[in-house]
Structure formats: structure tokens, C-alpha cells
Amino acid sequence: MLAFNRRLMIIALAGTLAACSDSNDSDDQVTPTPEPISYTFTVQVSNLTAGQPFSPIALIAHNEGALWQIGEPASTALELMAEGGDNSVLLQFADAIASVSGDAPVAPGAQTTLTITTDSIEQLKLSLSTMMVNTNDGFTGLNAMDVSSLAVDQTLTHFTLAYDAGTESNSEASGTIPGPADSAEGFNEARDDVNVIAMHPGVVSQYDGLAASILSSEHKFDNPLAKIVITRTQ
Amino acid sequence: MKASTFTLAVVAALASQSLSAAELEIKLTNLTQGLHFTPILIAAHNSDEAFFTVAMPASTALQTMAEGGNLEPLIAQANASGSDIVANPAEGLLAPSTSTMTTLMTSDSNEYLSVTAMLLPTNDGFVGLDSWKIPTEVGIYSVYLNAYDAGTEANNELVVEGSGAPGTPGIPAAPGGNAGTGGSGLSSTDNNTMVHIHPGNLGDDDLTAGTSDLNNTVHRWLNPVAKLTITVK
Lengths: 234, 233
What we know:
A: 234 residues, alpha+beta, Immunoglobulin-like, six-stranded antiparallel sheet, 10 strands, 26% strand, B: 233 residues, ten-stranded antiparallel sheet, disordered N terminus
């Protein structure tokens, strides 16, 4: 066996010498310039609620971290989005490698598609969040969904749940809700609620024993809130 | 030569298996405490067909089922497209917390499973499964189903006899009893006219007046409203 290997090696060496002899400009000297690689995802969001428009969707690509965590206080950026639908600070998420905002609210029954592009896919996660605007501080979204193994043209479908930011009491009172049901105040930096994020208990409405509520039966919701279809297109 | 012919035959058999008929044993459980399901329709169909698609308008056939429990237009549509169907496996209403079982033989290319039935008492609420990919691997699979609103009728929550046809507002029946009369009608601007997740019944605690004819301690629910257990044989 050893002898056999040695003979192979000699043949290989001879081949190498032969290859060298006829070229100083051989192909393997050239390092090809790597083409710039990018990964593109489209994210289609369908609003499945009866009467809760979604604030412009915030879509963030990142490798680590999370936009929110059940049982932990909301970041000020999340509070700003969940109370007032303003995602401008959330889009500056420290771990973000790319971020994009929807350009308008998404009405009940409507769909919108966002596109996001990154230059790496290893460990890549997508997070998304939006406010149910006829609530005090209700929001829905996806938290750090791993898309690193998604092939081109492959899709992932998720149905999202309702969360409560815990930063504003669910008074449903006139003057506290930014959506069309009230067109009033959104963000207020005071935290007069449990100050941890939890699943949303749902809205009560004026027809259900909360006399001071500005909301009515069509603002009620049940899970899931949204259908999300993530497609890798490149 | 013989060996390779045999291999080819095996490969061909395996390949055709994923496309050929499947036998499914299907159990549907009504998980609610106070809602009845009208006659159920189960279909195995190809990827071009669907009973409904969320965030899209309901077809007239779906509307007819969701507002009055009438399956005929959906059955006609399914038959026309070559779907394999089981209609009305419970032989009538499926009462709260009860189950029905059936079997479905699926033919080539009908690789998706859909299920639907109206929820009573609701205006246009239905339980649905949209285009679940039937696994090719033998086994037992569970899927939980949500309650949808067809988006075709305002949820006034008034029980009106004979109101099951599209265009006639009202809830055609409250089979479990416990509903009232004399409600003034819930003012609901149904601003989502697409198929969406049902916001739930509201009801009230007044059996002879109030806004709703439904009972707020009996006729509410939270998702999921049904469990589907599929045995792929």
C-alpha cells in the first residue's frame, strides 16, 4: 500500500511539474473577485382583525437580541410604538443590520408587503411589530424568527398573537387611544400599568360593562391577529 | 441487470406513492362550550382550490354556508373541481364538546385538506381549515382550528327565524337554547368585509331586551374552536 501511494505521489508530482512547465500565467493564480452577495426577503402582512387597523409595520433584520420579552418591561422604543404607533425609534434597534417601515397603516382585511435585504444570512432573524391602534398599548408581531435556513423561493407562514406592552392602563377611555375610534393621545411616557409585557387580555368595550370605554364591539379581537408570509426571494 | 431492474421498480413505486391516493381517518372535535357546528364539509383538493382565504372576500358559496349553514353551493364547487369530499359526517349539528369521525379517500393531486362549518349562534361565523398540506408519511396529526368571520354580514346578534339566506340579516337559530329575544341589535359596522378572525360574540345578560339576543355567559368562545385529528394510513 505504501509503495502504491508513493507511486501515485510521483505521478502527481510529475503532473504538477508538467503543469508548471508550460505556464506562468496559469488560471489558478487568478483570484476571482467575489460578487457582492445579498439576501432579500419579502414579508406579507394580512390584518385579520375585525376593527383594529395596524400602525405602519416595523420590520427588522438582526442576528441577536429581541424587540420584546414576555415578563420584562418594554423598552421605550417599544412603548412608543405600542402606545402611539410610532416605530421610528424601534427601527433604530441596536442589533439591527437592516430595517424597514411600512409606509401606511394596514386596515382590517388589508394586506401589505415589505421587502428587506441583508448581506449575510448566517444567524439571520426577522422581527416585526405593529400596534393595534384602537387599543391603549396593544401590539402584535414576530420576535426573532430564524430565517437563516430559508432557501430562495421558500416561504414561512406564521400567525401572530396579541400582546400588551404593560406601559399604559387599558382604560379604553376617551382621550387615550390614537386610532380612529378616538383619534387621541398616543405615547405618554408615564407608565401607569403593570410595566411588564404579557399576552393581551382583549378589549372590554362600552357594551360589555366598561361604561367609560370609547370602544365598541367591533374593536374586540381574538387570536390570531395577523397572517405573516415570509418569502426569501434572493 | 436483474438487480437494477428491481431497483428501478422500487424507485418508481416510492415516487408514485407520494402522488397516489391516500386514506385518511378524520376526527373533528367541537371544542367550544356553547356553540353548535352546522353540517360539516371536508374536502381534499388541489392547490388551486380553497373554501376561503383570509384577507380575501368570501365567495358566495362560502357566504351561503357561513350565514345559514347551507353546504350545497360549496359541495357543487368542490365536485366541479374534482375534489374528494365528505359532507355532513355528523349527520346534522355537532354539539358543543362532541366529536364526529369519518374517512376520506383522496385521489391523485388532491394534496390539501380543508374543513368548514357554520358556528351557531353567530351571524356569519364559521370554523375553518384552509388548505392544510396532507402529509405523505403515515401517522397521526393534530390541527387546531379557529373561528372566522365571513365579513359578509354585520354581527347584530339578533336571532331571526328564516334569516339564513345571504342578504337576510340575523342569526338563523340558537340550537343550544339560552338565547333571548327582543334585542335592539348590536350596532356593528362590519368594517372588515374580508374573511377574518371572528372577534367573538358579545351577548348580554338580558333575555328579553338589551342589545343582543345572545347570552354573554353562554355564547362566547376563544380560539381555537375545534381540533382536527387526521390519521394518514
